Automatic annotation (TrEMBL):
Skewed-composition ranges (Pro residues): 1-20
Protein name per its UniProtKB record: peptidoglycan lytic exotransglycosylase
A matching Pfam family: MltA
Cellular-component GO terms for this entry: outer membrane
MF annotations from Gene Ontology: hydrolase activity, hydrolyzing O-glycosyl compounds; peptidoglycan lytic transglycosylase activity
Gene Ontology BP terms: cell wall organization; peptidoglycan catabolic process; peptidoglycan turnover
Residue stretches making up the Lytic transglycosylase MltA domain: 123-280
Entries under InterPro entries matching the protein: 3D_dom, MltA, MltA_B, RlpA-like_sf
Catalytic activity: Exolytic cleavage of the (1->4)-beta-glycosidic linkage between N-acetylmuramic acid (MurNAc) and N-acetylglucosamine (GlcNAc) residues in peptidoglycan, from either the reducing or the non-reducing ends of the peptidoglycan chains, with concomitant formation of a 1,6-anhydrobond in the MurNAc residue
Cell wall biogenesis/degradation keyword on record: yes
Enzyme Commission (EC) number: 4.2.2.n1
Region annotated Disordered, chain positions: 1-22
Amino acid sequence: MSKDASPPPTAAKPAAPTPPEAKLERVTFGELPGWEADDHLAAFKTFLKSCDAVARVASKASGNAASQCKVPISDLAAACRAAQDLMAPTKASAKAFFETQFIPHRIAHGKTEGMLTGYYEPVLQGSRTPEGKFQTPVYKRPADLVNVVAEADRASKQTGFTHLRHTDAGDVPFPTREDIEKGALANQGLELLYLEDPVEVFFMHIQGSGRIHLADGTTIRINYDGKNGHPYSSIGRYLIDNGMLDANKMSMQALGKWLRADKERGQKVMWQNRSFIFFRELDDSEGPMGAMSVALTSGRSLAVDTGFHTLGTPIYLNVPKLTRGQGRGGFNRLMVAQDVGSAIKGPERGDIYFGSGETAGKLAGTTKHAGNFFVLLPAATQTAGQGIRFGERLPWQTIVKGAQ
């Protein structure tokens, strides 16, 4: 595992990955399955939440940087200004806004479909001190943790580390999950909270946020604030590949049951994922924040790969069947790219935010199905309507305060 006689891997800068082979092809709104039936006002309100962040990026972007974006930030900012000028929007005017300001494009990337999963905000019991059943620490960001890439671009990094530890001798790899859980960060004053169940803490790392009820009756929110920089590994895939769990029965609930059945065995499997997440405390009224430092909207916020998508972009989803238990019908909905995730890689790979609590967790835990993305390019974009290839993305490190 992580502690052995060999030296740690070097922090050498990896070679740049090969640009992805994917392009956007124009379609009409009439070709979007279920477009007429969607709640465009709900999508509009979610889009509007991103506009201040988009404006900040646009104000700092050079002309060249803006022109290289898949969705040029200046064009997205112009659409935002039009949204902000729309007085007392209704469902009808919101629909007209999207149909006037954007042109839908199908993603062509050599596969007929992409993959959609879900995530949520767990609601748990906890304590600020280690007492009674609350013994599993949740850590805040260490002062010596440095970013190799911007937080919003961490998931699109193909190789190497996203974060490193700064030392007098230079930047080195940070301890792994196993190292940290064996005490690598103990007695440094980094413990933010203590929770009861190590499996719930592990899942909260994957979700990136949590709402914690304390014994004194107060409730706080905690949110992603960096990671140890090691690549994310799916332990669900590890169990399937090693014949320990049936792929057809895999869900977050099934995985949790397996991990808890034998605590020592479960811990060793969780250590297979070397990635470890740090958190910061939010006011309970703020809501969980995505990679844009924008409060996420249940059923409308989408985590994407910023190697392919510009944050703030509207993306229409067509998913014939979203969850295993779903009956007839599908998930046809206009979303907004507002977040990222370590497991979200590819042009048609998305993670739907389902909200907070147990019901949201059940939905997220059983959501895994094929579907299609339709990217809405601003109508002002010169390449809108052509078969355009994905280009370089804007460096989103200019956007957020809080993504240190």
